[in-house]
């Protein structure tokens, strides 16, 4: 169910503590906005000097109000913050919006103060946003407790940046977007991003949730809440660099960056990940009408060849396809258009729009009706005829009227179908384009934005998969090579025969238990191959003994592993690992492995555990996936067994939170199954 945040968004009464007549103070801006509610609920302004604020009588303290207060906005100097919170709780506050700064962001002493306040708030059964936040607003309940006003709409914005909210306000306007709620996250001492996301998912006035976050707190919980939201969640985040990989002790850790983790979490949770406020706006504009395409096939309609080619490239870059239309559809288009029009896809009117603006509407209708098109992109000059000064020459007025009529016909056709239609126009604010936008057709001035919008409406390549964490297993007592090997084998992962040896006598005993060829590995070295601690394809006991003597003289390892050499001739080497991310928990990586794992960097990521069906899709999404199906006479390998191995490894790792990094490299996949040839684990 989640936490009850009703007092935050629809309180019975509100008090602004620190309200001021001084425009330089934040308490002035909050109080001025709060007054816009125009009597929706009792509003009390509190200033320690009393008097009046913004023409209203101000109480010198919360207690002086003489009645309970449901929500208190605290905007006072840091020195008086705890006292103000305590008084608010004493006066019955169920919610606190803490504007005051100077806590966790200042260092350990500030963090300690912040923890103490949050504990006091929770002990009183209340909730607190902040501290160090910029307030909140809810347009559906006339609650205005931020320094700026926000156009009403269906987007809830949860943000660690106030300026970003102002930019989005400007970007939203041309697309008819607005805000249901705005919450400045602040330090998240009590109410977290996850709490707010879950509440906005339940909020009837919110159709989509936009998030700007630099600190997820519990990233795994964020992904779970987003996966369960039942509404579009669009994330803009920062700090997705590779710093987290610098201290990694395994290939998995070295290859896993923060960007990989965030991208995997978003894909698995079905979150749209964007890189800029502009892209965030584009995606929200595309999703606002609730339309989703059934597939990834796009029909492109243009009135100029250049626009059509550029749009087709942009669509394919966005991960969609622009397939050639079949003969039947081409024939129908040919009957409706003139001879020089191109009808294969992109469909090019080739100037017919200047003679007959209605050709736009007829062609859009035909493409929306075509079974082989999942979405339609109209790109180019449409809108120009009705732009300022009437468009082209003396016929501009007639063309302008004709184009606007075409826009009305397109809008009507759009309303009668569930397929997405997106428009890119050189004149996005023209009267014709405004007709389309008013009917819910997203209109953009940039081709790449239109393509990204269509990608947002398309079914994900492999999105919306988030498997719950398994119950924790008894922790590993040791993480040596053979310890890890035995634990993974017990979890169902097959390995070749192996024996631990310490001297030549034990080596001879091992040879008697299974036949060669052999592999010799020096133990207690994390990267055995790099240190020259692995000898392969030792034909018999003699070669094995010689290799042992040479390796021991050079490395003096305390122990060695003698193993049966696997047949590598018809197999593919993969790497499968799990890295424990401090925010998102266990993150799995699969890819082409062996000694080239880091050089090739052909890997894919997902939140662990990864079920077998999901693992197979990850493997088939690799750049080198064709190798798995056999090339140049090599046989196809058992990808089903490989996927099952991925499930075993990632489930094991997810059940052992004490493991910081674990990997199997290489995992040999052959036509008849898999063998784990090497493994390593690093405990946290």
Characterization of the model:
With 684 residues, this protein is of the alpha/beta class. The protein has 5 domains: 1-135, 3-Layer(aba) Sandwich (Rossmann fold); 150-291, Succinyl-CoA synthetase domains (Rossmann fold, 3-Layer(aba) Sandwich); 293-457, Succinyl-CoA synthetase domains (Rossmann fold, 3-Layer(aba) Sandwich), CATH 3.40.50.261; 497-564, ATP-grasp fold, A domain (Dna Ligase, domain 1, 2-Layer Sandwich), CATH 3.30.1490.20; 572-683, 2-Layer Sandwich (D-amino Acid Aminotransferase, Chain A, domain 1). Helices cover 35% and strands 21% of the residues. It is built from 23 helices and 29 strands. It has a 7-stranded mixed β-sheet, sandwiched between helices. Strands 24, 25, 26, 27, 28 and 29 form a 6-stranded antiparallel β-sheet that branches. A hairpin with a 2-residue loop joins strand 3 and strand 4 (56-57). Helix 5 packs across helix 10 (277-287) and helix 14 runs parallel beside helix 15 (396-415). The longest helix is centred in the middle third of the chain and has 20 residues, at 396-415. The two termini are 33 Å apart. The model is unreliable at 241-254 and 389-395 (pLDDT under 50).
